[in-house]
Write a structure and sequence with these properties.
By secondary structure, this protein is mainly alpha-helical. It contains 12 helices and 6 strands. It has one domain: Orthogonal Bundle (Lysozyme), CATH 1.10.530.10. It has a two-stranded antiparallel ribbon. A two-stranded antiparallel sheet has the order 2-3. A two-stranded antiparallel ribbon has the order 4-5.
Protein backbone atom coordinates (compact mmCIF):
# COMPACT_ATOMS: atom_id res chain seq x y z
CA UNK A 1 0.00 0.00 0.00
CA UNK A 2 2.82 2.36 0.87
CA UNK A 3 4.48 1.77 -2.52
CA UNK A 4 1.21 2.42 -4.32
CA UNK A 5 0.80 5.72 -2.49
CA UNK A 6 4.34 6.73 -3.37
CA UNK A 7 3.70 5.88 -7.01
CA UNK A 8 0.48 7.88 -7.10
CA UNK A 9 2.20 10.83 -5.43
CA UNK A 10 5.02 10.69 -7.99
CA UNK A 11 2.55 10.63 -10.88
CA UNK A 12 0.63 13.56 -9.43
CA UNK A 13 3.79 15.63 -8.99
CA UNK A 14 4.98 14.74 -12.48
CA UNK A 15 1.73 15.96 -14.03
CA UNK A 16 2.41 19.48 -12.73
CA UNK A 17 6.07 19.73 -13.71
CA UNK A 18 7.62 21.20 -16.81
CA UNK A 19 9.08 19.03 -19.50
CA UNK A 20 11.85 19.93 -21.91
CA UNK A 21 11.27 20.22 -25.63
CA UNK A 22 13.93 19.48 -28.22
CA UNK A 23 15.83 22.39 -29.76
CA UNK A 24 14.00 21.91 -33.05
CA UNK A 25 10.62 22.10 -31.31
CA UNK A 26 11.59 25.24 -29.38
CA UNK A 27 12.89 26.98 -32.50
CA UNK A 28 9.71 26.11 -34.38
CA UNK A 29 7.64 27.64 -31.58
CA UNK A 30 9.75 30.79 -31.69
CA UNK A 31 9.34 30.98 -35.47
CA UNK A 32 5.59 30.55 -35.11
CA UNK A 33 5.44 33.35 -32.55
CA UNK A 34 6.87 35.80 -35.11
CA UNK A 35 4.53 34.77 -37.89
CA UNK A 36 6.62 32.31 -39.90
CA UNK A 37 4.65 29.54 -41.60
CA UNK A 38 7.95 27.80 -42.31
CA UNK A 39 9.70 25.66 -39.72
CA UNK A 40 13.24 24.52 -39.11
CA UNK A 41 12.24 21.09 -40.43
CA UNK A 42 11.65 22.42 -43.95
CA UNK A 43 14.03 25.38 -44.08
CA UNK A 44 17.54 24.02 -44.58
CA UNK A 45 19.06 27.44 -45.14
CA UNK A 46 17.89 28.57 -41.69
CA UNK A 47 19.36 25.46 -40.07
CA UNK A 48 22.72 26.23 -41.68
CA UNK A 49 22.47 29.86 -40.57
CA UNK A 50 21.78 28.84 -36.98
CA UNK A 51 24.76 26.47 -37.03
CA UNK A 52 27.03 29.46 -37.55
CA UNK A 53 25.84 31.12 -34.34
CA UNK A 54 25.02 28.33 -31.89
CA UNK A 55 28.43 28.80 -30.28
CA UNK A 56 27.63 32.41 -29.39
CA UNK A 57 24.55 31.60 -27.32
CA UNK A 58 26.24 30.35 -24.16
CA UNK A 59 27.86 33.73 -23.29
CA UNK A 60 24.71 35.61 -24.31
CA UNK A 61 22.59 33.34 -22.13
CA UNK A 62 25.02 33.93 -19.27
CA UNK A 63 24.56 37.66 -19.80
CA UNK A 64 20.80 37.10 -19.66
CA UNK A 65 21.12 35.39 -16.27
CA UNK A 66 22.99 38.46 -15.02
CA UNK A 67 20.35 40.92 -16.22
CA UNK A 68 17.03 39.14 -15.63
CA UNK A 69 15.60 41.94 -13.47
CA UNK A 70 16.29 44.58 -16.12
CA UNK A 71 15.15 42.26 -18.89
CA UNK A 72 11.81 41.50 -17.22
CA UNK A 73 10.98 45.21 -17.21
CA UNK A 74 11.56 45.33 -20.95
CA UNK A 75 9.69 42.10 -21.58
CA UNK A 76 6.64 43.36 -19.67
CA UNK A 77 6.50 46.44 -21.90
CA UNK A 78 6.48 44.28 -25.03
CA UNK A 79 3.80 42.00 -23.62
CA UNK A 80 1.66 45.01 -22.74
CA UNK A 81 1.90 46.18 -26.36
CA UNK A 82 1.04 42.76 -27.80
CA UNK A 83 4.47 42.35 -29.40
CA UNK A 84 6.07 38.87 -29.40
CA UNK A 85 8.58 38.58 -26.56
CA UNK A 86 11.11 37.50 -29.20
CA UNK A 87 11.73 41.21 -29.77
CA UNK A 88 12.50 41.92 -26.12
CA UNK A 89 15.69 39.85 -26.57
CA UNK A 90 17.11 42.04 -29.35
CA UNK A 91 19.40 43.92 -26.91
CA UNK A 92 21.35 40.72 -26.25
CA UNK A 93 22.04 40.24 -29.96
CA UNK A 94 22.67 43.92 -30.65
CA UNK A 95 24.53 45.22 -27.60
CA UNK A 96 25.03 42.24 -25.25
CA UNK A 97 22.53 44.10 -23.05
CA UNK A 98 24.91 46.97 -22.40
CA UNK A 99 22.93 50.25 -22.20
CA UNK A 100 26.02 52.46 -22.56
CA UNK A 101 27.72 50.76 -25.50
CA UNK A 102 28.39 52.69 -28.69
CA UNK A 103 28.91 51.30 -32.18
CA UNK A 104 29.55 52.88 -35.58
CA UNK A 105 26.99 55.66 -35.35
CA UNK A 106 24.77 53.59 -33.04
CA UNK A 107 24.30 53.56 -29.28
CA UNK A 108 22.53 51.94 -26.37
CA UNK A 109 20.69 48.69 -25.73
CA UNK A 110 18.88 48.85 -29.05
CA UNK A 111 21.79 50.23 -31.08
CA UNK A 112 19.71 53.00 -32.58
CA UNK A 113 21.26 55.14 -35.30
CA UNK A 114 20.85 58.88 -34.85
CA UNK A 115 18.12 59.41 -37.44
CA UNK A 116 16.05 56.37 -36.46
CA UNK A 117 16.26 57.46 -32.82
CA UNK A 118 15.02 60.95 -33.70
CA UNK A 119 12.28 59.56 -35.93
CA UNK A 120 10.83 57.63 -33.01
CA UNK A 121 10.99 60.28 -30.36
CA UNK A 122 14.47 60.23 -28.83
CA UNK A 123 16.71 63.22 -28.23
CA UNK A 124 20.19 62.71 -29.61
CA UNK A 125 22.22 65.67 -28.41
CA UNK A 126 25.57 66.12 -26.78
CA UNK A 127 25.04 65.58 -23.09
CA UNK A 128 21.52 64.22 -23.65
CA UNK A 129 21.61 61.10 -25.78
CA UNK A 130 18.41 59.24 -24.93
CA UNK A 131 19.58 56.19 -26.84
CA UNK A 132 21.52 55.46 -23.64
CA UNK A 133 18.37 55.63 -21.51
CA UNK A 134 17.04 52.04 -21.18
CA UNK A 135 13.43 53.07 -20.54
CA UNK A 136 13.08 55.75 -23.21
CA UNK A 137 15.03 53.78 -25.82
CA UNK A 138 12.88 50.72 -25.17
CA UNK A 139 9.73 52.79 -25.69
CA UNK A 140 11.20 54.06 -28.96
CA UNK A 141 12.10 50.51 -30.02
CA UNK A 142 8.50 49.45 -29.41
CA UNK A 143 7.21 52.30 -31.58
CA UNK A 144 9.71 51.41 -34.30
CA UNK A 145 8.93 47.68 -34.29
CA UNK A 146 5.18 48.32 -34.44
CA UNK A 147 5.77 50.65 -37.38
CA UNK A 148 7.85 47.98 -39.16
CA UNK A 149 5.13 45.38 -38.57
CA UNK A 150 2.58 47.68 -40.23
CA UNK A 151 5.00 48.39 -43.07
CA UNK A 152 5.96 44.78 -43.90
CA UNK A 153 3.00 42.78 -42.61
CA UNK A 154 4.72 40.16 -40.48
CA UNK A 155 6.80 40.09 -37.33
CA UNK A 156 9.79 38.25 -38.77
CA UNK A 157 10.03 40.77 -41.60
CA UNK A 158 9.85 43.54 -39.01
CA UNK A 159 12.87 41.98 -37.33
CA UNK A 160 14.77 41.76 -40.62
CA UNK A 161 13.99 45.41 -41.32
CA UNK A 162 15.08 46.43 -37.83
CA UNK A 163 18.48 44.87 -38.43
CA UNK A 164 19.15 45.70 -42.10
CA UNK A 165 17.04 48.79 -42.72
CA UNK A 166 13.75 49.20 -44.51
CA UNK A 167 15.19 50.07 -47.90
CA UNK A 168 17.48 47.03 -48.03
CA UNK A 169 14.65 44.67 -47.12
CA UNK A 170 12.29 46.20 -49.69
CA UNK A 171 14.91 45.71 -52.40
CA UNK A 172 15.47 42.07 -51.39
CA UNK A 173 11.74 41.34 -51.45
CA UNK A 174 11.33 43.00 -54.83
CA UNK A 175 14.36 41.20 -56.28
CA UNK A 176 13.21 37.75 -55.12
CA UNK A 177 9.49 38.27 -55.61
CA UNK A 178 8.88 36.69 -52.24
CA UNK A 179 8.59 37.47 -48.54
CA UNK A 180 9.33 33.90 -47.47
CA UNK A 181 12.01 33.58 -44.85
CA UNK A 182 13.71 30.70 -46.67
CA UNK A 183 13.86 32.58 -49.98
CA UNK A 184 15.26 35.77 -48.49
CA UNK A 185 17.93 33.99 -46.45
CA UNK A 186 19.23 32.27 -49.60
CA UNK A 187 19.89 35.58 -51.32
CA UNK A 188 23.68 36.17 -51.43
CA UNK A 189 23.05 39.85 -50.66
CA UNK A 190 21.16 39.16 -47.44
CA UNK A 191 23.34 41.06 -44.93
CA UNK A 192 25.51 38.86 -42.71
CA UNK A 193 24.90 41.18 -39.77
CA UNK A 194 21.16 40.60 -40.07
CA UNK A 195 21.71 36.84 -40.17
CA UNK A 196 23.70 37.11 -36.95
CA UNK A 197 21.05 39.32 -35.34
CA UNK A 198 18.19 37.02 -36.32
CA UNK A 199 19.94 33.75 -35.47
CA UNK A 200 21.07 34.91 -32.03
CA UNK A 201 17.65 36.33 -31.13
CA UNK A 202 15.87 33.22 -32.38
CA UNK A 203 18.14 30.81 -30.50
CA UNK A 204 17.87 32.84 -27.30
CA UNK A 205 14.09 33.10 -27.57
CA UNK A 206 13.83 29.35 -28.09
CA UNK A 207 16.07 28.62 -25.11
CA UNK A 208 14.59 31.15 -22.69
CA UNK A 209 10.89 31.10 -23.52
CA UNK A 210 10.16 27.64 -24.92
CA UNK A 211 12.62 25.04 -23.60
CA UNK A 212 10.71 24.13 -20.45
CA UNK A 213 7.00 23.90 -21.04
CA UNK A 214 4.29 23.44 -18.45
CA UNK A 215 2.45 20.30 -19.50
CA UNK A 216 -0.87 21.67 -18.28
CA UNK A 217 -0.58 24.71 -20.53
CA UNK A 218 1.05 23.22 -23.60
CA UNK A 219 -1.93 24.13 -25.75
CA UNK A 220 -0.90 27.79 -25.38
CA UNK A 221 2.84 27.47 -25.94
CA UNK A 222 2.87 28.61 -29.55
CA UNK A 223 2.77 32.25 -28.46
CA UNK A 224 4.09 34.01 -25.39
CA UNK A 225 1.76 36.94 -24.84
CA UNK A 226 -1.17 37.90 -27.00
CA UNK A 227 -0.05 39.20 -30.38
CA UNK A 228 -2.37 42.09 -31.06
CA UNK A 229 -2.31 44.04 -34.27
CA UNK A 230 -0.59 47.35 -33.49
Amino acid sequence: MFRIRLFLLFMLMHSFTAYALSEVETINLSLKSIGSEETLNNTQVLDKTLDNYRGTIKPLYHRYTQTTTEFEKIKSKFEAEGIPVFFSLIPYAESKFNPTIRGYGTAGLWQFGKQSAKNFGLNVKKGNDERLDPDRSTDAAIRYIKYLKREFGSWYLADFAYAMGEGTLKRLIQKNGSKKLSVLLKDPHFPSGTKAHFAKTLLLDAKIHYTNIDEENNEDISVRGEQVEP
